[in-house]
Amino acid sequence: MKMKFDARPWLILILVVGFILLGALLGDMLIPKGEATANEQPVIPIALAGPVADGGAEVSGLAWYGDTLIILPQYPNFTENYHGDGFLYALSKTEILAYLDSPNPAPLTPRPIPLNDAPLRGMIEHYQGFEAIAFSGDRVFLSIEAGDGNDMRGYLVAGRIQPDLGAVTLDVDRLVENPLQMERGNKSDEALLVVGDRLLTFYEVNGAGLNPHPVARVFNLDLYLVGTISFPNVEYRVTDAAPGADAADFWVVNYFFPGDVDLKPALDLLFQKYGLGPTHSRNETVERLVEMRYSPGGITLADTPPVLLKLLPVVSRNWEGLALLDERGFLLMTDKFPETIFGFVPMP
């Protein structure tokens, strides 16, 4: 008996293989890969001594108070076994510049500044510590993260710093909730920026696929919400902000840890436009600084390439603090991953 040939299984197999090949082709079109077409900047380590050198400091932010760099730990009382009031820490610009200009510098020891933060922990349910810091004269502004799972909340508190750095006194009786843009575990407004008489807060997640219409919240310096303005879609995480050379310019830290698979986009427009650096072309980690411009009508990306940091071979550095060092470059600090790292990045 003659057997009949059934072509249907083969047709199905051909179609499946075709769809797989088409998907791979489209994926290569969407995800930038390959040639290293952009420059990368080295991170020059600045050695620290004292409590801040310990990973337990979990640094969350940097900001200039005049010519003094203020360092914000996530939990300022980490040196007190997480009980009672804590401390901010200070380094002068003079000693930072001297370190960078010295052929054989000694480690820098940040000086403690007492901070009356203890009452806040009792006022905030599921308190998760401080996330950002900014100054306007002797006024200081801090953001706080709290929450459990996806039920996250953000808060703002203001205070004053003594000119002699004797103490920072927070107005703990005026704790202001800062509404978050979406429900996402361990995510809140991670960056602050003072522009004139306005305080801007920036949410951590602004990727096009996760937060299609991101905004910056605008407060006056008495912490009353004035409104919102548009913020650009920037993939991965925004972890700190720092004022630039003029009042309208500022920079943000833009970081991706490969374990955060939910934050990985199909398309990174900045890489597509400006290209990858040598180490970024071989790694999933993204460590870069992105320049932006402020106007009362909204925030936009500046027409300048991101500053790509030269990556380490194996580990990612969770940069949480950013400040400009005049026109020389940038100062950066990590939290505890992989350890406390204080570094200088020359301006390209």
Account of the protein in words:
- The chain is mainly beta.
- The protein has a single domain (53-346), classed as Tachylectin-2, Chain A (5 Propeller), CATH 2.115.10.
- Helix content is 13%, strand content 42%.
- The chain has four helices and 24 strands.
- The protein has helices at residues 8-30, 93-101, 118-123, 269-274; strands at 40-41, 44-45, 59-65, 68-73, 86-92, 111-115, 127-136, 139-148, 151-161, 168-170, 176-178, 189-195, 198-203, 205-206, 215-220, 225-230, 234-243, 249-256, 286-295, 298-301, 307-309, 319-325, 329-334, 342-346.
- Strands 1, 14, 17, 18, 19, 20 and 21 form a seven-stranded mixed beta sheet that branches. Strands 7, 8, 9, 10 and 11 form a five-stranded antiparallel beta sheet that branches. Strands 2-24-23-22 form a four-stranded antiparallel beta sheet, with no helix packed on it.
- It starts with 7 loop residues before the first helix and ends with a strand.
- The model is unreliable at 1-5 and 15-34 (pLDDT under 50).
Question: What's the structural blueprint in terms of helices and strands?
Answer:
Layout: H1 8-30, E1 40-41, E2 44-45, E3 59-65, E4 68-73, E5 86-92, H2 93-101, E6 111-115, H3 118-123, E7 127-136, E8 139-148, E9 151-161, E10 168-170, E11 176-178, E12 189-195, E13 198-203, E14 205-206, E15 215-220, E16 225-230, E17 234-243, E18 249-256, H4 269-274, E19 286-295, E20 298-301, E21 307-309, E22 319-325, E23 329-334, E24 342-346
Parallel strand pairs: 1-21
Antiparallel strand pairs: 2-24, 3-4, 4-5, 5-6, 7-8, 8-9, 9-10, 9-11, 12-13, 13-15, 14-17, 15-16, 17-18, 18-19, 19-20, 19-21, 22-23, 23-24
